[in-house]
């Protein structure tokens, strides 16, 4: 899988979409209590990566333009943190709640779907985490949850990350969603705010082509991170 993250073109034929099949479910990293002293960060949640490092979702106590981020750190004996890496900011988003997918080669690496939004989900930022965080693009999808309150039913767009499934095919990562339907904010073909069958949607990432949306077998490029 090293080529997948090299960012270097292979010069060969661009990959076509593999047959629909669900890959691996997210890895359930343990959520732990705040375990560091940090006067400048407001911590939302912390995950134990299992290798002596942690990932926290946090923002500055005094808000900044970049907003919240993911921080990977090691815990020092005096309960201070040695920050190892941090992601790009969430800007207007209130959350960057991560869903982790393990990659065996190279060991200790993960793909992350980080949920963006306020009261509802705006979609998922795709990040690659090794010794740093690399922004790979944005998935314009959410989970369409139907909420019943008395005699009223309404639609709420929530975090689809836990429904994500990751399959690795040589140097291509394929995300599908193991649910009946999903909310697609942008089909990259001029249509917005659609509820579509989940089996009709997949996202692929390849270092030559970047992140791409496939809908019913039709391939559409996703804007690359700036």
Overview of the molecule:
The protein is an all-beta fold. The protein has one domain (26-221). The chain is built from no helices and 18 strands. It has strands spanning 30-32, 41-48, 53-60, 69-75, 81-86, 97-103, 109-117, 121-129, 133-139, 141-149, 152-158, 164-169, 172-177, 181-186, 192-197, 201-206, 210-215, 218-221. It has a 5-stranded antiparallel beta sheet, with no helix packed on it. The chain has a 5-stranded antiparallel beta sheet with strand order 12-13-16-17-18, with no helix packed on it. Strand 4 (69-75) and strand 5 form a beta hairpin. It is globular.
Please sum up the structure shown.
The chain is mainly β. It contains no helices and 18 strands. It has one domain.
What key attributes describe this structure?
18 strands, 5-stranded antiparallel β-sheet, 226 residues, mainly beta, globular
